[in-house]
Amino acid sequence: MKASLSRILVSGLVGTALLLAGCGGGGGDGKAQKAHGDTTCDGRIDGTAHVTVWYHSGPVTEVGTLAEQVADFNKAQKNVRVELVKLPEQRPYSELVESAAASGDLPDLLDFDGPNLYSYAWSGKLKPIDSCVPKSVRDDLLPSVRQQGTYAGRLWGIGAFDSGMGLYVRPSVLKKAGVRIPKGTGDAWTADELTGILARLRKLGYRAPLDIGLPYVGKGDEWNTYGFAPAVWSAGGDLIDPKTFRTADGFLNSPESVRALTVMQSWSKAGYIDPDKDEKAFDKGRSVIAWSGHWRYPEYTKVFPGDVAIVPLPDFGQGTVTGMGSWQWGITSGATDGDAVWSFLAYLLKPEQVHRMSVANGGIPATGSAVKLSPAFDTGGGEHLFIEQLRDGIAHPRPQTPAYPAITDAFGTAFAKIMLHGAPVQATLDQAVKAIDKDLAAHDGYPQKGS
Description:
alpha/beta
């Protein structure tokens, strides 16, 4: 590790670092697709290679599992030596990446929240990995994982797990209220139907029957975009022009977007949404419906065994849509031996290793072969809806543009104002559009760079 990075770590911006040493081997069928100008992998590892890996400090079980995977990988062969460094999640992590990139101190393998990939690829922090990934591995990935990792026609990132969203419901309560339970993405509740269901549940004694994670909404962070941009997409709106990525005007502030968020705001104004100050609205039975993600499945099913189902997010006019994307791995521009880095990443993508991580963090296995090892996600399993959505195109990626940081900041702030403070929807979205278009103008629309 370079001296300047060590100073950053010691300064306290990072906290405690987890360092593991070892060596690792890869795998694959040798049939990687080499894009024009992609020389990241050439099929050789020269001598004993040392690979540094940065990882965000997510759930303890997740970090612990990765540490074990590094140790096991290191013991299995002698060609590659891996050093794992655990860093803070969310903004401190992103800020450290930017600082390290500016000073040339990025690791060889970097993990990052999926939508940040486009900014990192555009600004030169990552190398394309088409030349590293064998066709067999690429074909085994869920379509959503491939889509999330692609920018400007090249593959830049790859993850061991994906994410899923839906509405968690209590079937016993819904049946008592005479409410139908959707069987799949083809018969999702409409937004108007959900409004009526909330009113019916209130009459049944549930004052605030909907939980949307309001404390996280108030922070204005990534949950707002990940969790609620699907309402905008479902209505036929968007966060930015999806074809050119040159403006948000006419998309984020379109009649469709306004209509979707006006409906959601009406739920807030009617008091249907639980404040969820203890983050236990669903667990404690105050709410019967929870708008949330895959990470809540173990918790909810433990509290209400046999009485939890997952149904699609509501249809705001153009069909149900869900969020997707999670943390991914990318080989940085400073990596000296792409094949050595890929050998470790290939190990993490083996079916048993993907399954191992999925068990640890509850994430959705990123490969079809690992899904078969995971009964909850496979056909007939309690979480199979998540796989159905990711495979069938119901899941929508967040905007695949380097402008994404500006987009999510503007949308997250606007959504919080609309839901928590009753801000006028049209005017608030117009404000968000101005902020996004200002960033686009400052970067000349983020033109794609030549090969």
